[in-house]
Amino acid sequence: MTATPTEQIPAGIGLAPWLRMRQEGMTGNESRIVDWLLVPGNLQASPAIREVSRALGVSEAMIVKVAKLLGFSGFRQLRSALQEYFIQSEAVLPSELAFDEEPQDVVNKVFNSSLRTIIEGQSIVNAEEIRRAARCFWQAQQRDLYGAGGSNAICADVRHKFLRIGVRCQTYSDAHLMAMSAALLQPGDVVLVVTHSGHTSDIEAAVRLAKQNGAQIICITHSHHSPIAQLADFIICSPAPDTPLLGRNASARILQLTLLDALFVAVAQQDVARANRNMQKTAAIGAWFAAGSLR
Fold this sequence. Notes:
Elements: H1 15-22, H2 28-37, H3 49-56, H4 60-69, H5 75-92, H6 103-124, H7 127-139, E1 143-146, H8 150-164, E2 170-171, H9 175-184, E3 190-194, H10 201-212, E4 216-221, E5 234-237, H11 247-268, H12 272-288
Parallel strand pairs: 1-2, 1-3, 3-4, 4-5
């Protein structure tokens, strides 16, 4: 899984999300090495590979293997790229979220964690892929949104956004209904699937069935190497960092919502006049339901 010529390794702030995306498909031990390398301070004073090997309890050959899996020629090149990342991150990115007893510090760190996630995500986002996905979504005859657990709530949120501009979508509350939906899809339809892991088996089965029936697939997930992403026609990556207090899913949710906002605007741009007319109509509903307005 070395980097191909079309997969140029980003420098600076974009490196961390790139490495997180490349972790897909690694063994637990290989992924553990990547996690260790991304911890601030672990590479202080330019440690030699033997020191890293000793700290992790793995062979030097394993570290070199991981460096090459990540797309680097070896550990030295990987270490240099990481040192550049940490230098830039100290100047640009807010501090890491950590446990703290002071309420104001906790609030600040939660906000800072979200900022870090968005800044890193922005550094590697593929704007052209979002534009192409938006065009597909706009032109579709039927638009179905798939997601499990917290991702289903995100689908409900984006359905609400699209309804405001007159772009009708459908979400489903469980995998059984998603599979029924997928069975009825056909060419000209589109599925927007939100899945952080990209591994949820029930969602994968529904997406695979939709794909077999000719629907196009837009996938929001952590890595273009994930199983569900491999089925997609358009992949919008949301590689989020893990945080001690919130975990990875919480930060992924922030990034996914931001990326879906970008997709929403790109869809609205397909016909700005129509989007504005429909927004005025749907916004007026709030006033229609105001106290006394129905009398």
